[in-house]
Amino acid sequence: xxxxxxxxxxxxxxxxxxxxxxxxxxxxxxxxxxxxxxxxxxxxxxxxxxxxxxxxxxxxxxxxxxxxxxxxxxxxxxxxxxxxxxxxxxxxxxxxxxxxxxxxxxxxxxxxxxxxxxxxxxxxxxxxxxxxxxxxxxxxxxxxxxxxxxxxxxxxxxxxxxxxxxxxxxxxxxxxxxxxxxxxxxxxxxxxxxxxxxxxxxxxxxxxxxxxxxxxxxxxxxxxxxxxxxxxxxxxxxxxxxxxxxxxxxxxxxxxxxxxxxxxxxxxxxxxxxxxxxxxxxxxxxxxxxxxxxxxxxxxxxxxxxxxxxxxxxxxxxxxxxxxx
Length: 325
What we know:
By secondary structure, the protein is of the alpha/beta class. About 50% of the residues lie in helices and about 15% in strands. It is built from 15 helices and twelve strands. Strand 10, helix 14 and strand 11 form a beta-alpha-beta unit. The strands form three sheets. It has a five-stranded parallel beta sheet, with helices on both faces. Strands 6-7-8-9 form a four-stranded mixed beta sheet.
């Protein structure tokens, strides 16, 4: 098979799946709204179940729901008919995924769902199937054709199921008013957790580690402060201990290159006024954005307003070492 034929086949698959999603988009209606409202009002959990490729999509849907504020677990349909049905309570809602709607393991679970009085949502490509007829709500994920040339491997149908599941999860997220703080509580680990949980307060240098000089000193003393604190900057305080400016090692280098005896000059002649700052409770990710926006590498930190002594300083290296970038 030539490279052109490989590309042709790849594009054909993507086009078929794109067409399936376009059809799904056109069919989205009040039934979808009703399902979202039912899931939102559920006092228990959302139990998502399926078999085979549909089971893989079901597992992903359960995970997405759980991570976006809707308590949810995955039930393997085959395990369900061998005892795991006991994890379901009468207050739960079940979402069952099956393209054919005739998956044997799912069909065998239906009488148990009915006896428990559980609300059943079907996501299926055949609304008139056994699953579709027994469900309280049916979301139609039928597709014009599968991308598999043999018509055997689920492709476009699982893509449609995946998209429908994501649509449910995000609609519920929006309806709950689920925000970044809520998301952070459910994702404390790894770089994602760091982005959402780490604050400036967690990373900033404090106390004697903050580089500061008086506005009455010369650049020679500022150089000593910059060098000894190792952050490439010093703040300049006036007689009221208010931060009025900053001097960076870049300011020093540029002055030395011009050869104008910069070390004997007063700091107020060299400093940059109205330095950028941030509050201690701001996310470290926000501090990084400010640094990138203004092409700087440090920010002085205040409790709420830039009044009085700064309570800390944060360097871009502190943020990069935290792993959030």
